[in-house]
Amino acid sequence: MKISIIIPVYNVEKYVGRCISSIMNQTCTSEVECIIIDDRTPDRSMTIVEKMVANYTGPIIFRIIYNEQNQGIAAVRNTGLKAAKGDYILYFDSDDYCEPDMLEKMYGKAIAEDADIVVSDYWETYKDKEIYYKQFVPESRVEALKSLLIGNLKGYSCNKLYRRKLFIENGIEYKEGINFGEDQLVAVYLFFY
After folding, report:
1. Is 130 left (phi over 0), alpha (psi -120 to 50) or beta?
2. pTM for the whole thing?
3. Helices 45-55 and 16-24: angle between axes, nearest 10 degrees
4. What pLDDT sits at residue 111?
5. Which stretches in the chain have pLDDT values below 50?
6. For residue 163, what are the β-bridge partners?
7. What is the pLDDT of residue 125?
8. Distance between CA atoms of 20 and 7, rounded to whole angstroms?
9. CA of 104: how far to CAs of 4, 108, 112, 160, in Å?
């Protein structure tokens, strides 16, 4: 398996369809799995997801995990990591979406460079505007960490493809109970290693 995409779902019925659709429409679909985790969402999010997955006929493998109780985003990210089989991990929040060639370009770069982490630029979308953010990753680990810590390089998960073994071999996981900025915290560990 090349890539595991992990998507937590909680209270996002307005956005989750666009998120899942952007995954289904990728140009890179071979050996890709998408793990969707229902964190006991109280709205119709999972009804939308289940219908989309049931109607999907492409090669991406979709798996749905249902939590017995709400655990929060950090715990859900760990659940997805434990279930993942891909060489690389991409964490998406269920209100994120991506360009159709995102997986193809990021995975291609990962293989070409034998990279542990691949970072893409990203957009932030608001009601009245969109802002494009260019991301630059310094060559040295120390400089990359500095850039991450001072905020020049954002710690968001949605624009990073991480080699799964970075998590496994270094015992890195999301700190359960920290459900805001949890991706920034883990990014520091991942960039360190």
Report:
1. beta
2. 0.95
3. 20
4. 98
5. none
6. 88
7. 87
8. 9
9. 13, 6, 12, 13
